[in-house]
Amino acid sequence: MITEWAVSPGLTPYEPAVAFMEARAAAIADGRAPELVWLLEHPPLYTAGTSARTEDLLDPERFPVFRTGRGGEFTYHGPGQRVGYVMLDLTKRGRDARKFVRGLEAWLSGALARLGVQAGARDGRVGVWVDRGSGREDKIAAIGVRLRRWVSFHGMALNVAPDLTHFSGITPCGISDPRYGVTSLSALGVADGMAAADAALRASWAETFGPVRDAPAPHLSEPA
Q1: What one-character DSSP code corresponds to residue 190?
Q2: What residues contact 138, with CB distance under 8 A and at least 6 apart?
Q3: Pick from 41, 52, 59, 22: nearest CA to 175
Q4: Catalytic one among 173, 194, 197, 212?
Q5: Can 173 be counted among the known catalytic residues?
Q6: Which of 222, 76, 64, 96 has the alpha carbon at shortest distance from 142?
Q7: Rg of the chain (C-alpha set)
Q8: Are the beta carbons of 111 and 154 closer than 8 angstroms?
Q9: Where in 18-91 does DSSP place strands (E)?
């Protein structure tokens, strides 16, 4: 099974991106479109998943806040963070949601290994984490997905070189334990940039989920 792979330049507004994802997921479920991985960056914003708690939005006036249907709690998106929206037909891939999430974690961990960063999943904490020593671990990639008719959408956010202070307006993913923070490739001393991260993500995807082919960046309708 070959998955389409698209990359949008610049900053992509959030609401039109979600509208596109929902339409594409419906088309995939109906057999009218192939699977798609869509890489992009958003302007600074916070999103609230289905488990988000109001008290975890610490600075509600800082950036726009969007309520979304993906799983998880509050997260941040912004420049320097590679967002990957993953639209796969899980009917053709086994209808196993847990296996799918484990696959996303393995995809991200494999990409980070290619960039010289040892990272992985943790029991009870969704996402991909880096061991910083002395009992501290930092999240370098968040995962939040939704399934509709066994087609996935939303996906992951990999911190390449975002402004990490922007995470201070929320309790990221609802985790307030001081042992657990947020980091990025840049903060870890990996200065290769977005193009290198994209190349690593693509190579690791092929190993984890299968081959891809290039597709044009989605054309989005402007919000009314």
Answers
A1: -
A2: 129, 130, 132, 180, 181, 182, 183
A3: 52
A4: 173
A5: yes
A6: 76
A7: 16
A8: no
A9: 36-41, 45-48, 65-67, 74-77, 81-87
In one-letter notation, the amino acid at residue 50 is: T
DSSP 8-class letter at 70:
S
Tally of residues, the chain? 224
Give the largest Cα separation in the chain, rounded: 51
Assigned token pair, 217: 């960046």
CA gap 52, 138 in Å, rounded? 20
Residue 219's SS3 state is coil
Q: Is 67 exposed, middle or buried (0-12, 13-18, 19+ CB in 10 A)?
A: exposed
Alpha-carbon distance 81 to 201, whole Å?
Answer: 13
Taking only the tens place, the pLDDT of each residue in 42-76 is 999 999 999 899 999 999 999 999 999 888 899 99
The identity of residue 210, as a single letter, is G
Report whether 31 contacts 10 (CB < 8 A). no
Q: Are 91 and 60 in contact (CB under 8 A)?
A: no
- Per-residue pLDDT 10s for the chain (224 aa) are 899 999 999 999 999 999 999 999 999 999 999 999 999 999 999 999 998 999 999 999 999 999 998 888 999 999 999 999 999 999 999 999 999 999 999 999 999 999 999 999 998 888 999 999 998 999 999 999 999 999 999 999 999 999 999 999 999 877 778 899 999 999 999 988 999 999 999 999 999 999 999 999 999 976 54
